Amino acid sequence: MLYDYLMTQKTTSSTTETGSYTKASPSAEASTHFGFKTVGEDEKAGKVAEVFHSVASRYDVMNDLMSVGLHRVWKAFTIGRADVRPGMKVLDIAGGTGDLAKAFAKRAGPSGEVWLTDINDSMLRVGRDRLTDSGLLLPTAVCDAEKLPFPSGYFDRVSVAFGLRNMTHKERALAEMRRVLKPGGKLLVLEFSRVAKPLAPAYDWYSFNILPWLGKKVAGDEESYRYLAESIRMHPDQATLAAMLEAAGLSRVRYFNLSAGMVALHEGVNLG
Ligand SMILES: C[S@@+](CC[C@H](N)C(=O)[O-])C[C@H]1O[C@@H](n2cnc3c(N)ncnc32)[C@H](O)[C@@H]1O
Prior knowledge:
Layout: H1 2-9, E1 31-34, E2 37-40, H2 41-55, H3 59-66, H4 70-82, E3 89-93, H5 99-108, E4 113-118, H6 121-133, E5 140-142, E6 155-161, H7 170-180, E7 181-192, H8 200-219, H9 222-234, H10 238-247, E8 251-258, E9 263-269
Parallel strand pairs: 3-4, 3-6, 4-5, 6-7
Antiparallel strand pairs: 1-2, 7-9, 8-9
Helix pairs in contact: 3-8, 8-9
The structure holds S-adenosylmethionine (SAM).
S-adenosylmethionine (SAM) is lined by residues 48, 52, 93-97, 99, 118-120, 123, 144-146, 161-163, 166-167.
């Protein structure tokens, strides 16, 4: 049934067999942020795509190095809060190399249905190969979070880890996430956030010096890691993002600061 639905969406959504991305058509004047730069809304997705095509093959090793392994702890907390149970349907958006999808699939079991999705086919390919290597064959799809090719009210859980920051129209993406959740279903948004004030100078120094340096040495790409540091600074803080989840129609919105607010997990429930 879902397969039939996806086939009907093929002509209207941004999901394509080749994984290419069809741009929305924003107004000529509309602008947004790409890190600290102001760019046309129609340019941002292409620039973000360049970043992730460039870093895909070194993404996992860079994640461990940059966060000194902490991303595993942040994800473990998210997995715990998601409380995925056997038989559940789960959508991981901007899933990249598949850390969350893999954990969810183990919990949902053979009667569950866990989708690994991302707008970027380079990232998704690395994720799909990793999952296959660990014996998991999950449905994978290239798709834009701002225009999900799934029916309304289909999933018990929707997650997005370190992806929302990169999206051009965050409100649109959050509204789509809510739309595809079943009544009672839960959204989990894990993202960099606003670190506690006393730590900010050290964190800034690390972000704007060490991150680009590591990017250059390990991934041969300084610019993408400068974008990472800048995009974190431009992302809404904890309270603003919580208000955005509420505006998207989610209820019981709350957030948890992790590592002194370096990262926050936001969650909300679709009460229908
Ligand atoms: C930093 S990676 C996160 C990957 C993975 N979730 C993790 O936590 O390791 C961000 C991902 O967001 C994806 N992304 C950016 N814009 C997107 C969009 N509009 N829709 C879906 N995915 C998007 C990128 O392609 C990239 O794979």
